[in-house]
Amino acid sequence: MDLAFLLFSIFPLVMIAAGISDLASFRIPNLMSIVLAAAFLPFALAAGVGWAEIGMSYALGVGILVLGFALFAAGIAGGGDAKLLAASAIWVGASDFLLYLLAVALAGGALCLVLLLARKAPFPAGWLKADWVRRLLRPDDGARDVPYAVAMAAGLLWVLPQLDIMHHAAV
């Protein structure tokens, strides 16, 4: 198996794991964002990505992180969401970031709609026995009521075949 492709697989797998973690606990471990940010460099080197493009990808990640922290400080976004979006931006790159962001926004809108409807629906008491289901369907903290890493993972999987980075992963 090609080393670049093997390293590339870290990206969608960690994004899916982050979505599952956020869904189950409303938390995205910092380690997931750190692994994504750190794993991009060996992937990029194995795939023959130039240093200028690598630098631009990390610069984009830093810019998104700063913006994300501003949104976190304003109470608009979660801190884990900001870090995960920044780490994923490194992989997606500047040329495809708006496409990825659009897919994340659409997936997030669908997720919010599903959660709004589900939170209004009556559920059998047995369904709410699991802590993660109860937190998801009956959140007590309005600031942490949408596991947005689910939307980031879904948005990524939606547009992944169209991303320029796929050309590097296939090399």
TrEMBL record:
A single MF term (Gene Ontology): aspartic-type endopeptidase activity
Source species of the chain: Futiania mangrovi
UniProt keywords, alphabetically: Cell membrane, Hydrolase, Membrane, Transmembrane, Transmembrane helix
Locations listed in the record: Cell membrane
Main location: membrane
Cited InterPro entries: Preflagellin_Peptidase, Prepilin_IV_endopep_pep
Membrane topology: Multi-pass membrane protein
EC number: 3.4.23.43
Signal peptide: none
Source superkingdom: Bacteria
GO cellular component: plasma membrane
Transmembrane segments: 31-51, 58-77, 97-118
Domain Prepilin type IV endopeptidase peptidase: residue ranges: 10-112
Top-level enzyme category: hydrolase
Record-given protein name: Prepilin peptidase
